[in-house]
Amino acid sequence: MKQIYIKIDGMHCSHCEMTVRNALLKIKNIESVEFDGNIACIKYKGNLDKNKLIDAILNTDYITKKEYISEDIRKLKSNIELKEFIIITFLILIIIWSINKLFGFNVFNAIPTIDSNITYGMLFVTGLLTSIHCISMCGAINLIAIYSDKNNLKKPIFYNLGRLISYTLLGGIVGALGGILELNNTFKGFIIIMASCFMFAMSLKMLGIIDFHFKCFRNKKKITTKNSFLIGIFNGFIPCGPLQAMQVYALSTGSFFKGAFSMFLFCLGTIPLMLFIGLLFNILKGKWKIVFNKIASVLILILSLVMLNRGLLYLNVDLFKSNNYDGFTTSKLEDNIQVIEFDLTYDNYQDIILQKGIPVKMIIHVDKKYLTGCNNEIIINEFNIKQELKEGDNIIEFTPQEEATITYTCWMNMIKNTIKIIDDEDYFKGSE
């Protein structure tokens, strides 16, 4: 008995496998067809016409070619060529950069402010607006949850149903307790890092770079509808800025019903866009689905790295800290106090240089039109500062005692800037 492997683009589920298997078994001399992901493992006797293999697969509306046929499965593992990966990554980054330039800020950080004055109707609207942020932060988890299902509808629906239930229950519990147990930054960081590692591994698997199983005839474990529901439930426990803001709102209600209902409305607002992305992924067929799958795989990879950096920032680890301080603002000495002033923007504070041992007064001028649910609270862990920003002048005071380069962020770790503390009086005098 001889054996050969053929990679097939566009396969995502057991129905795909059944369709291709039935087509291939009609070819003379083929004894059996099993699958390892999108690679068909064919056992046959005698001779086998490779052109017939290709024609049979193409006739089922899936994609293959001569280069996808090999006696060594390792040569077929990658689902994307290096050139394709570079082009897709470049286009995604160009789109993100273009959106930033077009709107003048990062639209994914433009989260509405959630406070005790918001109405029930606005909670739903806030969910709709926040769903843009959900796509950037949780869209990858969404794609993983609905990936490779024979049913086009059930998994996206069950994933979002899981989210809706977990959000609602959390809101009810927080509202009933009348208080909220705030997770410390270390715990938040580890949860986010674990989620990012899972997303990273899944992206590499979807790209065909790694595999979680190596035997061709081993049954592939799929994400079932039940798993999608459980992923949706888990999604409600991942630290997320808008979600935490909603938990604080639920806390203010002091009621299980009101807390649950407020979170229910908020989550309901996030569902249309999340559901649309999931349905679009499963409805697409043929070449369009192949293209979408490749884009989704690269996007999940990029977002997993973004989420990893966010988790590390919770642990005070900044992978992109630079030693180049061009563009930093130097404080000015007034009555033996270092004064630093700047205007709040949508997605940036200010990179600053300070002299050690001298008290600091940081004055942040806030225009209401630039205040969002993301940038409205500054965290400087090294000085135990956690200050909410309001319209007008906001003053933050502290005294840096040691030379250091520290990162300070918004409360969601989406915005980050750097404080450079030096011991160089000449440099400091030069800025006066």
Give the count of structural domains: 3
The largest pleated sheet is described as: 6 strands, mixed
Q: Per DSSP, what share of the residues sits in E-state strands of 2 or more residues?
A: 15-25%
Percent of residues in helices: 40-55%
Please, could you describe this protein's structure?
The chain has helices spanning 14-24, 50-58, 82-103, 120-146, 154-177, 185-207, 225-235, 241-253, 256-283, 286-314, 425-430; strands at 2-7, 30-36, 39-44, 69-70, 329-330, 332-334, 337-343, 352-355, 360-366, 377-380, 385-388, 392-398, 404-410, 416-422. The model is unreliable at 213-222 (pLDDT under 50). It contains 11 helices and 14 strands. By secondary structure, it is α+β, with helices and mostly antiparallel strands. It folds into 3 domains: 2-76, Alpha-Beta Plaits; 82-314, no CATH class; 329-430, Sandwich (Immunoglobulin-like), CATH 2.60.40. β13 (404-410) and β14 (416-422) form a beta hairpin.
